[in-house]
Amino acid sequence: MRGIVRFVINRLKGIRYAATGAWHLIRTEASIQAQAVIALIMTWAGFYFELTKTEWILQLLTIGLVMAIEGLNSAVEKMADFVHPDHHPKIGIIKDIAAGAVFIAALIAVIVGLLIYLPRFTG
């Protein structure tokens, strides 16, 4: 029984750490703040255009994907700056790769958004 209680307590601590990290990310990172504004606009659009359940799932998954990868990108940048505060070409490549992952996710999100919303404008 103690093992189960310890397991639950550790999971709750993990959730608290994750929530603290997410809150820090939203409070301090301009890129996440911009993504959050876009997410709110797209959520409003979803209600306005009465998305289907499948469309909501796709929209929420793409919003989550972009924001999660943006968070990982921010973590990579902070770690790279911590490890090597001065400009270094290899650190620059690492940061570019992380930013490229965000770009890919954002591009997919735009495509999903076009597939969902464009038919509503073209009839």
UniProtKB/TrEMBL annotation:
Its cofactor is Mg(2+). Substrate binds at residue 70. It is found in: Cell membrane. It comes from the Bacteria. ATP binds at residues 17, 29, 77, 95-96. GO terms for biological process: phospholipid biosynthetic process. One of its GO terms (molecular function) is metal ion binding. It is a multi-pass membrane protein. The chain crosses the membrane at residues 32-50, 56-76, 97-118. Mn(2+), Zn(2+), Cd(2+) and Co(2+) support activity to lesser extents. A divalent metal cation binds at residues 29, 77. Coiled coil: none annotated. Belongs to the bacterial diacylglycerol kinase family. It comes from Aureitalea marina. InterPro entries: DAGK, DAGK_sf, UDPK. Pfam families: DAGK_prokar. The active site is at residue 70. This is Diacylglycerol kinase. One of its GO terms (cellular component) is plasma membrane. PANTHER family: DIACYLGLYCEROL KINASE. Keywords: ATP-binding, Cell membrane, Kinase, Lipid biosynthesis, Lipid metabolism, Magnesium, Membrane, Metal-binding, Nucleotide-binding, Phospholipid biosynthesis, Phospholipid metabolism, Transferase, Transmembrane, Transmembrane helix. CDD domains: UDPK_IM_like.
